[in-house]
Automatic annotation (TrEMBL):
InterPro entries the record matches: Cro/C1-type_HTH (IPR001387), Lambda_DNA-bd_dom_sf (IPR010982)
Name this polypeptide is given: XRE family transcriptional regulator
Source organism (scientific name): Achromobacter arsenitoxydans SY8
SMART domains linked: HTH_XRE
An example molecular function term from Gene Ontology annotations: DNA binding
HTH cro/C1-type domain ranges (all copies): 95-149
Amino acid sequence: MTENTHTSPAFSGTMMTLGYHDLGQNGAFSEGLLIVAHHVRLPRESVKAHFGKGRPIGSIVKDREADPARRAALQRARKHLSSVAADSPEAMSALTRLRLSKGLSQSELADICETQQSYIAKIEKSKVDLRAGTIRRLATALGVSCDEIIEATGKSDE
């Protein structure tokens, strides 16, 4: 493990590398996932609530995916996440693992299935009963059978 310390008038903190997973080479670069812990200590007067100045995560991801290299990196990261989660079934739903194994975000799957991202999120959390058309669209989008979708959503003969 390595530590880098950064000090400024606004804050002092330590960032500790907890791990690195190499995703491979991309041209002149190596890509990977860096897991860090960042401890900060702020003067009380500098800590203020943050209202209305952020951007929705979907907007940030959309900007990143506009660059083909970043889009490919995000797809590889999603695929890797699904393979890591396969060892811990409780970490995410089977449908989420299926989606990630195809390198798709919830928004991308929603676009393919002609529905909303929020509906995909509800399906992945087993919060809705699926209709036959939705099952067919999911199966087609994910390249699996309707039976696999039913099994992945846990909706078979409850």
